[in-house]
Amino acid sequence: xxxxxxxxxxxxxxxxxxxxxxxxxxxxxxxxxxxxxxxxxxxxxxxxxxxxxxxxxxxxxxxxxxxxxxxxxxxxxxxxxxxxxxxxxxxxxxxxxxxxxxxxxxxxxxxxxxxxxxxxxxxxxxxxxxxxxxxxxxxxxxxxxxxxxxxxxxxxxxxxxxxxxxxxxxxxxxxxxxxxxxxxxxxxxxxxxxxxxxxxxxxxxxxxxxxxxxxxxxxx
Amino acid sequence: xxxxxxxxxxxxxxxxxxxxxxxxxxxxxxxxxxxxxxxxxxxxxxxxxxxxxxxxxxxxxxxxxxxxxxxxxxxxxxxxxxxxxxxxxx
Lengths: 220, 90
What we know:
The structure holds 2 protein chains of 2 kinds.
Chain A lengths: L6 H7 L4 H25 L9 H21 L10 H22 L12 H8 L9 H21 L2 H12 L4 H8 L3 H21 L4 H8 L4
Chain B lengths: L4 H10 L8 H16 L4 H4 L1 H9 L1 H18 L8 H5 L2
Helix pairs in contact in B: 2-5, 4-5
């Protein structure tokens, strides 16, 4: 059972030295392990039948990595949340990267392309229960044509690649990061710039994005 | 009625801002965001940029959702113990 501590006690104990520090680190490690296991328990499908012992071992590794990250960032804790809430996010972050990596291992991102643009749009629209009216259908096709044109002509190769992977093939951000040997901020920026161009492209073709959205939602 | 992926993507395009915070900035602020939310305050009003990033970034959103639920369990004294995970991950 872990000891309950105030934020100040955590910050003091974790660097106090001696048994006070040892006990605090052991307690923090247990909490981080529980956070990693909690994330794994919500995402068991991604482990695709891996044995429980292996999953628990992965959680132990995540807890250790998260513990190191927390200790390295202690000076960044601003005190605007409980210390444990702040610390849990490191464990969840490490666990999420591990889960996504497990789910996508052996899949080559390079094989995922935009060559079948129209089919990709159709795949994304699965789940639409209503058959659109001919007029609505024509407008939908026009919106998709504009989006396709912007993707092919306006985006840089990197923006297009990241957008296609993440939006059309649902590749997780961290897998894109790993594949490009990049970081989350850089990949998010590529996607953000791509969205800005798509928004501008629709507006330039006379489509207010809000109205465009209503073309694809349920008819009123 | 549940939106399909295309509609959700159009929504993301619609809600794109010229300036958006980065994943690192989101990571820095997410624990505060969760605490504000669990205190009953409207976190989206207090921290609109963070809310906007969470809507756009699936990775940060997955982390936020887990942190939110984990913290809620801890606040209720229901955070699973290590032994409980033998059953949760059988």
